[in-house]
Amino acid sequence: MKADFTRWLPAIAKDSYRKTALSVAGVAALGGLALAPTATAAPVTSGPHQGAVAAIDLATGKAATSANPDEQPVESGLTTGSATGKPPAGKPSRAQLIPHGIEGAQSRVPLDDAQLANARAIVDAAKKTGVGDRGAVIGVATSLQESKLYNLGHLGAYNDHDSQGLFQQRPSSGWGTPDQITDPEYAATAFFSALKNVGGWQDLPLTAAAQTVQVSAFPYAYAQWEEQAADIVQQLW
Fold first, then answer.
1. Which end of the chain offers a freer environment for a tag, N or C, measured as fewer CB atoms within 10 Å?
2. d(Cα 92, Cα 85) in Å, to the nearest integer?
3. Considering just the CA atoms, what is the radius of gyration of the chain in Å?
4. What is the distance between the alpha carbons of residues 148 and 56, in angstroms, rounded to a whole number?
5. What is the pLDDT of residues 178-203, one digit of tens each?
């Protein structure tokens, strides 16, 4: 049974017609994105629509036929937790990173250098914006769902409206210009600035906190990345 987190969500959403271009310095104005009037989230489904999957495959070259069909991606150390179950010295604990427990089945993907660099940018932005390690987990999990930690540009017919970047933010919704939202530092700072305007976000389940900012058609999908996101943040923090 899926957790009913709808009781956590205020009647909010992003204004689809705001076109304000925001600088990193002025990104605090993004608070309005978490508080503006909004429509009800679309019906829950089991995963991203095929267009989103195709967009990621196209952007990463995975849609092309491999010269070696038996070749498998190399698993990054950042896809698994500590072998001892104890965090390295100076790193946040699992209890800090996942204070409300895992919700549902978990997914994992191997990370390449580009994904790792983008994860670092998200963790660095979490530190700078003051959302801490728990905020970083929410940010990394959100990006894993939205773009698999790839900084996606406009992909033509594969695009979901005008969504771009690590968090699939939309210029037409006021997140910034295409150049801004495809800058990992800006995109992550914008996400965390909006998250900080969600009342009591620290006490929400991850999928509720992420959905309140993202207003996704797949609100439960963020939960599946919480464990890998925690592993990534623990090792990069």
1. N
2. 12
3. 17
4. 8
5. 999 999 999 999 999 999 999 999 99
